Description:
This protein has helices spanning 7-19, 35-47, 75-85, 95-98, 116-120, 124-138, 151-163, 193-198, 201-214, 220-232; strands spanning 2-4, 24-29, 50-55, 89-91, 143-147, 169-173, 237-246, 260-268, 271-279. By secondary structure, it is of the alpha/beta class. The chain starts with a strand and ends with a strand.
Amino acid sequence: MKIIRKIKLMQEYVKRQRKAGRTIGFIPTMGALHEGHLSLIRQAKKENDIVAVSIFVNPTQFGPQEDFKKYPRPLAKDVRLAKSAGASVIFNPSADEMYPAGYQTFVEVGKITQGLCGASRPGHFRGVATVVNKLFNAVPADKAYFGQKDYQQARVIQQMVKDLNIAVQVVICPIIREQDGLAMSSRNQYLNAEERKSAACLYEALKVAKAMIKSKIKETAKIKKEVRNIIESNLLAKVDYIEIVDAETLEPAKMIKGKVVIALAVYIGKTRLIDNMVIG
Ligand code: PAF
């Protein structure tokens, strides 16, 4: 399988594929691939002739106190996994290739970035939107695949694609979970055995919230309180946020109406995990 490290070579590769009449599916990742990423690659393989996967740990989306340095980078394993799931090419640029000396352009998506993770991680979505925009230029694909686990990220990217008229179709794929319901994430590997057990409380709480909504409870405050109780009954868990928002605008909802997302960010020990459920 081809591994390309230069933007220009990546663009030329895509150009050649297009000239030959092939469609391109693209999965941007930061590596440390797990079953969630592989499900995106498999989906892209079904829908496109060529599947490109980028592996780049993007410095601009990490805050100064965050885990940029310790973020796992098992490149050889990632290449093997991506290939086995059907990837045709890996784009693995260096930080200098993406952000050369003198770099000064950033993409800011508006309101939709301000709540949820945007409130707890200032500058995060500016970094995400910027790098995804650059990746879309490096890998001009027909379709790009993102996981629903990062729901706000997926919506931010959809908004950016719409606002900037980027010619790519954004596909959001379902969350892939471990047996106990924990959403798959590269950061799960930071958890020790005890924390790993506790981490299942996010999904437990989401299931209870869903059941409350099904039983026609409409006040989101009531639902959020119950979710908080479940999570906080766990000694290792510390809530960052629990929100119920409109699925389109991400505005907080007072009452359950239309399509909503129950979104959580919870520290288990030092590891910050996110999860969500779309209802309606
Ligand atoms: O979800 C991720 O892995 C990253 O935020 C992304 C979209 C690859 C941008 O760096």
